[in-house]
């Protein structure tokens, strides 16, 4: 089982428009961050995409990804879903829509915002068969579980994917650690975790909270993501424990 990090940045990316790098060294390529999204792949080569970031087309081209077997959404914030139209190309050689999964609330909001994707329109086919997640399920050789996480005044869905005896957890956009999160993520091989900045934030995990979740869930490896312009790659690498990786666009890691 393998993790591919398509994007590791916050909602504005790094650098921000205006060539604003903040505290990030512009000469370090791993500081250039697109909006967050990942792919998990099993030993059979089946791929699951989590979130359709606003940079999705560029991410898929940069990593040579031509198709995926299913799509998951953590929530409906723009940086996590507004690249959805880039999935059209993946429908061309399929006889049926691509399977998609999200919470009930996220399903409702995505259907309102992108009705043509889920209903078809003007002779164009439905792109995604969107399904509400209700329990632990199977898709494309993976089993997956989920948990709703506090994200300021709303929630975001955390996912646990299992295949080939390994597990990868994706927990981005949360502002509090709950007992349900710790249970769902317990002893995962890889935890990909929200880590916006060092200072506390009202809707996101900071570095201390990200590391706290990793400790409480007793995960084997941790990868930091959703980082803003204050999180310089090399500076962070010198701060984190040995089993923690500072994520970057294009990172590949075996579970």
What is the compact description of this entry?
This protein is an alpha/beta fold.
Strand order of the largest sheet: 6-5-4-3-2-1-14
The tally of structural domains comes to 1
Fraction in beta strands: 25-35%
Number of separate strands: 14
The poorly predicted ranges are: none
Query: Overall 3D geometry?
Result: globular
Main sheet: strands, sense, barrel: 7 strands, mixed
| Content-based structural category | alpha/beta
Radius of gyration: 17 Å
Helix content: 10-25%
Reading off the top of the CATH hierarchy, the class is best stated as: Alpha Beta
Keywords: Hydrolase
Pfam families: Lactamase_B_2
GO molecular function: hydrolase activity
Protein name: MBL fold metallo-hydrolase
Question: How would you describe what is shown here?
Answer:
- With 255 residues, the chain is α/β, with parallel strands linked by helices.
- It has a single domain (2-254), classed as Ribonuclease Z/Hydroxyacylglutathione hydrolase-like (Metallo-beta-lactamase, Chain A, 4-Layer Sandwich), CATH 3.60.15.10.
- The chain is built from eight helices and 14 strands.
- The protein has helices spanning 56-62, 78-81, 88-91, 104-113, 115-119, 179-185, 207-217, 233-237; strands at 2-7, 37-41, 47-50, 70-72, 98-102, 128-132, 137-139, 142-151, 154-163, 166-171, 190-194, 221-225, 244-246, 252-254.
- A hairpin with a 2-residue loop joins strand 9 and strand 10 (166-171).
- It is globular, with a radius of gyration of 17 Å.
- The model has no long low-confidence stretch (mean pLDDT 97).
